[in-house]
Every structure is written in structure tokens, then in C-alpha cells.
Amino acid sequence: MAEQRCNWATSEALAHYHDTEWGVPSRDDRHLFEMLVLEGAQAGLSWSTILNKRAGYRRAFFNFDIDKVARISPQKIDALVLDEGIVRHRGKIESAVINAKAVKQIQAEHGSFADFVWSFVDNTPIQNSWSSYKHAPASTEVSDALSKALKGYGCKFVGTTICYAFMQAVGMVNDHQTDCACYTQCGSLGKKGRKKSPM
Fold first, then answer.
1. Active-site residue numbers?
2. What are residue 194's phi and psi, to 5 degrees?
3. pTM for this structure?
């Protein structure tokens, strides 16, 4: 449990996510895919809304099994649009299936989704030093490049702002405030990071 947190962790759910997951380097393809889908789902909404529906997403999308999500049928999408456990936005739901297919192609070409996304930061987390999270950028040249590359594979809901939020979430960039207890913890993980998904 972090004694001092970033100023955005204002609820119990946000605090738990902040303390246990946000900014921790992840190289687990299933978790990376989950965060790509969830960050895309957040577009226009709050992260609290997405966290509250995370269990619903894991149920609806086979715990983010990339192969299974890639095989979701149009009929299943019709059913998911009516599922109150997730954000009922057809475009966002369809994007999860489209992105799963793209991730499978990326895996085939690059060995893993992790190898692909981490190549954009030379396999080492970018260490920032913000006194307040409000100083963190909404996007960077790196997120621009990642967004362009993912779009090149046909991914949807992967604009540069979404990609930067994804980078923050999976520890490609350490944007914890310098007075946050997690700042040094995440920074010390370096190239190791999480191999298995947080559950």
C-alpha cells in the first residue's frame, strides 16, 4: 500500500489500481491486450467507469484471451452491445475483435506483442519526474509512433492519447509523481517487469 500516492488516485478502486498495477512494467501479452482494449474503451469516459466494469470485460472477452477474442462473431457482438457489464458502444466492442486479430499478426511477425510495443522505448521504461501528475503530457512523439504503427496493423481506438495512457498503464513510461511511494518502486523494476498478468 502506497503511503503517498499520485493525486489522481482518489477512490478505493483507483488507489488499489494505482498501488498494484499502474506504471508496473508489463511484458505479458494477455495483460497488454487487456489494457489496449480498456484504454480504448475509456475514450470519452472516466477510468473509474472502466475499472468498475473490468470484471464485466474479463467475462465478456474470455479474460482477454487474444485467440478467442479474435474469433468473436458478429452475433456475439450484437449480444455484447446489450451487455450492461461493459461499455455498450458497438464501435469499441468491434475494435476489441479487430485489435485482437491485429495483435495476432503482430505476434506472428515480432514474436510477441510485448516485444513489439516495448521496442518503442528501447525495452526500457522512460523515467519522468513530475512533481504533480497534471504536468504529465497527454501524448508524446513515442505515443505518436506507437499509434501510427498500431493503425498500420488495422487497430482501432489507438490514437496517440490512448496510446500514451496505455504506455503509462503498462509501465513503458513511469509517470508516478516524484513524491509517490510507487515512483521509486516502478523505476527500480527496469527491464524486469511483470511476466504474468495481475488478476
1. 17, 39, 47
2. -85, 130
3. 0.93
